[in-house]
Recover the amino acids of this structure.
């Protein structure tokens, strides 16, 4: 919230919010809740939002809603917003040139571009996220090792190592001779050493199949828009945020205008208010001429 947007007094702030239509009563009228939060960046798209909401109805029925929006790179989202402002007719495919896909904090990679395109076009989809692993071979001993440097989103590294060890002890994974975690401040590094007769590519596929090295992320871009749940595409999510920012800026400007007019009434007599307004407007106009180098007489 901008400091100059509302009065500093809590009572005056609450009165301004209710009068401005930004706070309304809850369903049972026992509390107040905000209709919108002030944000300078699209939090719904930039940050991952796993939420579940339920609303009780008088008859005892319950409506359940869930949303799961993947996180995105903030710089890419801002670039897409600027492009959408310049050209509102951009399609989802055009916006994907700025936002090619989600940006998970634990990295990893998404298998294929088709699931991402489907999720952005329809608002729903399932993304297969894999850990990033490399195969290294020791020239002296001839043994190979699988080095895991990135894991899927919301996967615990310690739990992943424990799961691999459990599969080795249960003899469901053959060919692993040693397992250790060499992660430090420089980054993640899980080393899976293989036996001499093991085929690294085959064992890596087994790890993807039986361990959390491959997980599915269900995209559900459901949001409350104008009081109703709505499934949003990528373009819809960005456009809703732009509409919200226009509304916030318009309300802030209207409030600043009311405050300036009230201060003008207190400081300047009524018969001189018009002359004062004209003076300040001309001063601003001439100031622009000075900045642009235009001469006037």
């Amino acid at each position: 919230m901008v400091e100059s947007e509302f009065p500093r007094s809590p009572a005056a702030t609450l009165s301004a919010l209710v009068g401005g239509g930004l706070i309304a009563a809850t369903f049972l009228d026992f509390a107040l809740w905000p209709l919108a939060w002030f944000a300078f960046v699209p939090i719904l798209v930039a940050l991952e939002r796993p939420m579940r909401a339920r609303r009780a109805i008088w008859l005892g029925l319950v409506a359940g809603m869930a949303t799961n929006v993947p996180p995105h790179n903030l710089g890419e989202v801002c670039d897409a917003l600027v492009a959408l402002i310049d050209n509102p007719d951009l399609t989802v495919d055009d916006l994907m040139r700025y936002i090619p896909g989600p940006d998970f904090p634990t990295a990893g990679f998404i298998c294929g571009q088709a699931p991402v395109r489907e999720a952005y076009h329809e608002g729903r989809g399932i993304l297969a996220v894999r850990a990033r692993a490399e195969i290294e071979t020791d020239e002296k001993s001839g043994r190979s090792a699988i080095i895991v440097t990135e894991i899927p989103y919301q996967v615990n590294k310690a739990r992943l190592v424990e799961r691999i060890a459990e599969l080795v002890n249960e003899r469901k994974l053959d060919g692993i001779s040693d397992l250790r975690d060499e992660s430090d401040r420089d980054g993640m590094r899980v080393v899976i050493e293989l036996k001499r007769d093991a085929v690294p590519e085959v064992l890596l596929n087994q790890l993807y199949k039986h361990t959390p090295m491959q997980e599915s992320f269900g995209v559900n871009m459901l949001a409350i828009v104008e009081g109703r749940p709505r499934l949003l595409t990528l373009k819809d999510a960005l456009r809703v945020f732009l509409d919200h920012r226009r509304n916030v800026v318009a309300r802030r400007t209207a409030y600043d205008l009311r405050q300036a007019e009230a201060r003008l009434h207190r400081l300047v007599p009524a018969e001189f208010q018009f002359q004062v307004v004209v003076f300040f407007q001309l001063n601003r106009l001439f100031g622009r001429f000075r900045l642009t180098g235009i001469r006037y007489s």
Observations:
- The two ends are 44 Å apart (CA to CA).
